[in-house]
């Protein structure tokens, strides 16, 4: 009897230990390639049987083999950290544009692709890297849409002092043309949640995190941006942008987990009733059981016929993704999940996100009937 009990206990322990050891030992580099599958103006986008969602989009679960990508120690430009990916489906593949940091913590943007959404091949070279005075310390946090065959990527150029929202375009995902900061004269209102009083300060020239709606609304493209409050901007050509007054943000901070800041995630997705589902990231101040300063990911519904302000039609009170795993609670920045990519692929939704500003993960959700 004692032998049977000991054997049973050992088997139970192995059920937990072996998956953990396998996770520690498996590579997060994935496959690498010096060449990239051809993408052109004629490439197809989205699933052949794409189904628009209803709001809210629920049921996201973390992929059990997260993280799916991590730093590559053999490539100096992405040797320290890898996280915060944009995503898009082209030619029946999921493509990721991700943020990678070297040992000096300077960020570049890398490219990876997958035929199943989980196992990726990464291009050995960065596709966007610092080359201009406004981005000497990094090209960060891409978000991407494709309109009329052209990819429009917003990203943050950082010079060590100021963050500036920038634009780059491509037709093949490899060769990018930079257009520089697109909101150079904006003054951002910064809320220092870590200070007890007089926490509101002005940041001249500061802008980040642009998520573009990929259809014109009343003759204009719309974009929500900002890394403290959500603001709104519009454009006729996707290159030159005008922003509305920043004394009235696009969306107020309502939920307890977003009281410190709100920041766009992936570009909004059109719903079946013609509105837009917007995924966004938020930081709370501690109430409601959320860790102070933790980044969570949620969703809201916006009706752009009321553009530019909205306001949001509805919002889900609880996050759809919270920092819970070891990679998310302890990292380059603790207690962070940060999403910038959402696609529908092979009969499910895939939401890609950064874990603790160090790894790249994915969560899945079923399609709605």
Folded structure, characterized:
This protein is mainly beta and 369 residues long. The protein has one domain (2-366): Glycosyl hydrolase domain, family 43 (Tachylectin-2, Chain A, 5 Propeller). The protein has two helices and 24 strands. It has helices at residues 2-25, 326-329; strands spanning 31-33, 61-62, 81-90, 93-101, 107-114, 121-123, 138-147, 150-158, 163-170, 177-181, 187-191, 200-204, 211-212, 221-225, 231-235, 242-243, 261-264, 269-270, 276-283, 295-302, 314-315, 337-345, 348-355, 359-366. The strands form six sheets. The protein has a five-stranded mixed β-sheet with strand order 1-6-5-4-3, with no helix packed on it. Strands 17, 18, 19, 20 and 21 form a five-stranded antiparallel β-sheet that branches. The protein is globular and about 50 Å long. The model is unreliable at 1-26 (pLDDT under 50). Keywords: Glycosyltransferase, Signal, Transferase. Residues 1-22 form the signal peptide.
